[in-house]
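Worked example (supplementary).
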Amino acid sequence: GAGVSQSPSNKVTEKGKDVELRCDPISGHTALYWYRQSLGQGLEFLIYFQGNSAPDKSGLPSDRFSAERTGGSVSTLTIQRTQQEDSAVYLCASSFQGQGGYEQYFGPGTRLTVT
Amino acid sequence: GENVEQHPSTLSVQEGDSAVIKCTYSDSASNYFPWYKQELGKRPQLIIDIRSNVGEKKDQRIAVTLNKTAKHFSLHITETQPEDSAVYFCAASIDSNYQLIWGAGTKLIIKP
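After joint prediction of all chains, the assembly is encoded as:
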């Protein structure tokens, strides 16, 4: 079946502009995660959605970052007034949370470059 | 909260030799420990996981061991091959919240 998809795959934007990154999780997966990965670095947790519960926003680095998940499916990560330090690959993952584990399936990522 | 430390940050081994990557965790309530592999330019993918009710799990050339008392777990890769070159991430989680706390990653280099 279809995996996690993200769009766009690449985004180049000027400093100060807003950007929206989209994630389509695997159908039926109740949990959705956003991560940021700078070049050669690890996975920086940003935000976690679980079903209808309030999202865990503890990883968002500043109030310029926000995310929504509509209808328990598609999610959009918005970065306002982008800065050069926002340049990174933004990864989305989804998982089905039930007995037997909760493997996170990652999307291909969106490479964001802020010039 | 939970904290996961991973060592080494870079590991270089001769092709055919074994590689071991170690992680420690801080929260004794953690009960799920997956390992993900991220090849260059690709997305992370689960390669093996272990739950706290077992001490070791094997899948062909890879194995994971867990020491609950010491709160550490390790990834073992035997007979390493060029395709094992990648960054490996460990993680820990508690079933009740389904969030993974990630290690910083280990870059494994297989020398021909």
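Two points are worth noting when inspecting this output. Chain A touches chain B through 19 residues (CB under 8 Å). Strands of chain A lie at 5-7, 10-13, 19-24, 31-37, 44-50, 65-69, 75-79, 88-95, 105-106, 110-114.
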